[in-house]
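Task 17 of the worksheet. Students: predict the tertiary structure of the chain below and write it out as structure tokens. Keep your answer in the requested format; marks are given for formatting as well as content.
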Amino acid sequence: MSFLPAVDRAAFAVAFADRLRQHGVAVELTATQDFVRALVAVPPVSRTALYWSARVTLVRRRPDLTRFDEVFGAVFGEALLSLDPNARRDGARSGPRGGDARSPAPGEPYDVSGASGDRRGLPWVTLPPVVADADRRDDVELAVPQRLPSDLAGVLNTPFEQLDAVQAQLLGRWLERALREWPVRRSRRFAVRPGGPRVAIRETAAQARRTGWDPVHLVRTGPVRRPRRVVVLCDVSRSMEAQARAYLHLMRALALTTHAEVFAFATSLTRLTTTLGNRSTEAALEEATERVADRFGGTRIAHCLSTLLASHHGGTVRGAVVLIGSDGWDGDPPERLAAAMARLRRRAHLVVWLNPRAATPGFVPRTTTMAAALPYVDLLLPADTFGDLLRVPGEVARHVRRR
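Model answer:
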């Protein structure tokens, strides 16, 4: 059974360390943290156990032992002086810190009261000091405040059009830290790996030098796995105005974590890989917005895909995971989009379409352009909230494993 049941350990440790500092014991922040960890690792079952946990972690100088015993005794009743007779030597006594502080005479007890002069021990929670009397009103009903989730967790599944600029920026930073899982591919390089399919001749021979050139231990190697290349194309036309900024956050997160090639398109294609790689999120998004001159205009998905495949960046699509973020509205003919998607599908390893309309219950692609592109899409995912964007890497990884 714990000696301090239902006690905030951190608040207790901070309050006790503050009381020790008030009476001349040098307690560092690291020592306070060690005391909290000691209380968590070994909960004290008695006053003696608490005494030793506090003394071992909080007292770093021998002259402070006497003052520590005095403060501990005043807080918890009887001082446990008999536990360590060596600490009661007169040579271990030292005066409190400060120029005008008076050292007590031999045999005189220390004043271990708190800053306010009380001797009631320690507070179990950290509370702000009272600066004025509160107005007592009998007609006001007091209630315990309800614990609510954080602001970010509360708006994680909120549609993009209902988020303000500050919330979108905070969720964008969260997205950059969360996108760590991504599909990998097998490279041509091999590295030492336990249980690998091949035997490394050079490393095995080096190990055999220690056993009389008898290869007792076989060193094995396996193929090196590397993250698969990612190519992102996001629609910034007028129909995607509410989702454009959130998709820019997705593009920046992928560019920073997976070294992806990112493009924005409306009526023309704009490469934003170097722009979104800026260290400052605000500067990167502002520069990207300035570079996309045709934003919030018409849409030509087929033309932009053909431009990408015909450019010198078309080789980046080969063997890559291609993410297309668009609602499917296109000004080009459906057959032209189908031809461009067929070429893209032959080069890419996986084609994923992120459609904000797909989150609607009973979604059916009714536009002719979206219907023409679907036969060449491996995975159609909803992307109407930041929660949907966070689930994209996991869905892609599961689909790759099933293949």
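Marker's comment: The beta strands are 184-192, 198-199, 220-227, 230-235, 261-265, 269-271, 321-325, 350-355, 379-382. Residues 78-132, 134-149 have pLDDT under 50 and may be disordered.
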